[in-house]
Amino acid sequence: MDSVTELLKRETCATDSDYNGEYMGARISAVFVILVTSTLGALIPVISTKTSVSFLKMPSWLFFGAKYFGTGVIVATAFIHLLQPANENLSNDCLSATFRVYPWAFGIALLSLFSLFFFELLAFNYINKKLESTNGVPHSHSHFGELGKKESDIEDEEEEHENSTPVVSASKGLYPDHFSHAAEHQDPENLDTPLQQMDKEQYYGQLVSTIVLEFGIVFHSVFVGLTLAVSGDEFKTLYVVIVFHQTFEGLGLGTRIAGTRWPKGKEYLPYLFIIAYGLTTPIAIAIGLGVRQSYAPNSQTALIVNGVFDSVSAGILIYTGIVELMAHEFLYSDQFKGPGSFKRMVAAYIVVVFGAGLMALLGRWA
Known about the structure:
Blueprint: H1 2-9, H2 24-50, H3 60-90, H4 104-135, H5 151-160, H6 174-182, H7 200-230, H8 235-259, H9 269-290, H10 300-331, H11 341-362
Helix pairs in contact: 2-8, 2-9, 3-4, 3-8, 3-10, 3-11, 4-7, 4-10, 7-8, 7-9, 7-10, 8-9
């Protein structure tokens, strides 16, 4: 009897669109406005590191702020703009009981996070083996410190470096070596200084991280565009919020792309990433306008698809934001070592928190 009562109380998923027939001119303009703002947000950090024109170069302090602001934006996007809406969608009362007996959004995000970690383990293992076969000698270090290194190799290296100053003088073993290698993964803060030559391992590692970050953001951007196109009375507020949302996300992505040291012959890749990001939301808006009468964002299918994809994206951005961006840059970077490093670290932390707080605040409306 209780199950029957619950079934009668359960709402039926909406099968109609939220579109109210108003603001068509503004909806069309959103395609072009968001195309420009999101593309510029991602493009400006890259252009400022590539150009030889002085007035187009971003001052080092501004690039520093933009990079850590973007880190905060990415982390807040994962929790506020992806995981929370995904949980709402996948726990909607109109869905079957299966979706209400388990927190599917969090479970999918968790699976996404661990899948990404496993994928990165495989990727770097493959890269290390490829470099070993290319160079003809065992590769001395990996993105994950001493992972996979033979004990005899470690002992030989300890003997070789026993007279040198360790990175962490208070301890020996694998942990300091991990810090030693990870400290090599630097982003170009001084934009007036030519970038140092990087090895293939670092390039591949940064490339994998950039692709993963782009993948997570682009997934989310598709549904942002669709939602804006078919929204109802809330369109005006949503329009303004999404312009800022996509610009901030673009800034976060752009600083990461700018921080990747692209080898000769691959200089076009940053612009491909930027174009892909810049076009995603406008194309989704255009598609949404085309199906505005038939697309029902609160239908059972839309709720499940949107919830699953947002959950996957949340897992990706949580992993990328916390592990690849926050942990590696704050803990494993030489930029926060030496005189004045603590003040610099505190400044970076404040900027990260500000970026996260501002993006979280936007979650009040979108």
